[in-house]
Design goal:
This protein has helices at 12-23, 35-48, 62-71, 97-125, 146-165, 184-197, 201-209, 221-231, and strands spanning 3-6, 27-32, 53-56, 79-82, 128-133, 171-178, 243-246. It has 253 residues and is α/β, with parallel strands linked by helices. The chain has two domains: 3-178 and 220-244, Rossmann fold (3-Layer(aba) Sandwich), CATH 3.40.50; 181-218, no CATH class. Belongs to the short-chain dehydrogenases/reductases (SDR) family.
Length: 253
């Protein structure tokens, strides 16, 4: 049985992928910095797959990450999904620098920290699958999201570099970049964008979020789950350093 560790795995995209993989028979370890969310997710995962659970881990804390590696030393992580993410919408002139730094720490430095921690065991076993959850904003930009977009653009470069560093082993590293997924994070963005642009929340959905997408639809958790399943399957063993974009045709324009 393969073990999957998912950061930010107790809400939104991470929780959806965690529960989906547990249902598919994977042993899932979902991490989150919210103890209450961890407790709830543990119950949900164990109802789906007896060996699955959640644990507290803050990706910005080296001590937390080291503790997680120690706690899982008898349960080697085969698949790492770096998903933890936060958002803050503001023009740079008003963007608090501590918040700007926090976004970079969670979504870029945190990814490097967790990857560095779990890679040695993958190297020792000559097997690993790492999936970084990016965003459409890893390949395009939008106003008022400078920290998020900087982090996600940096994530692509990090993923490609790691893929090259470990290409001699059976370790692949790819980035999955969805357009908008209807999660609590995006719900918050809808409200923030409505306030920032002085328009209704429905107008944000129609005129900002879905307007660039020829298919005019939010990406679903099921689509992300299927993409992750493919990337960790034997059929994808030579797919590495790639950016898998789920955008409804957005970047074709």
């Amino acid at each position: 049985m393969q073990t999957v560790l998912i950061t930010g795995g107790c809400s939104g995209i991470g929780a959806g992928i965690a529960k989906g993989l547990a249902q598919k028979g994977f042993r899932v370890i979902a991490t989150d910095l919210n103890p209450q969310a961890v407790s709830s997710m543990t119950a949900e995962l164990q109802a789906l797959q007896a060996d699955s659970r959640a644990m507290v881990m803050n990706v910005t804390s080296s001590q937390d990450v080291d503790n997680a590696v120690l706690a899982l030393q008898d349960t080697p992580v085969d698949i790492l999904i770096n998903n933890a993410g936060i958002q803050h919408v503001s023009p740079l002139a008003d963007f608090p620098m501590d918040k700007w730094d926090q976004l970079i720490q969670v979504m870029l430095v945190g990814v490097a920290r967790v990857t560095q921690a779990f890679l040695p065991a993958m190297q020792a076993r000559n097997f690993g699958r790492i999936i970084n959850i990016g965003s459409i904003h890893a390949v395009i930009a939008s106003p008022y999201k400078s920290a998020y977009i900087a982090a996600k653009h940096g994530l692509l470069g990090f993923s490609k570099t790691m893929a090259l560093e470990f290409a001699s082993q059976d370790i692949t590293i790819n980035t999955v970049c969805p357009a908008y997924v209807k999660t609590p994070l995006v719900e918050g963005q809808i409200a923030d964008q409505a306030k920032r642009h002085g328009i209704s929340e429905q107008e944000v959905i129609d005129k900002i979020m879905l307007e660039p997408m020829p298919k005019k639809a939010f990406i679903t958790i099921e689509e992300l789950l299927g993409t992750c399943e493919f990337l960790i399957s034997p059929a994808a063993r030579n797919i590495t350093a790639q950016t898998m974009i789920l955008d409804g045709g957005w970047t074709a324009r």
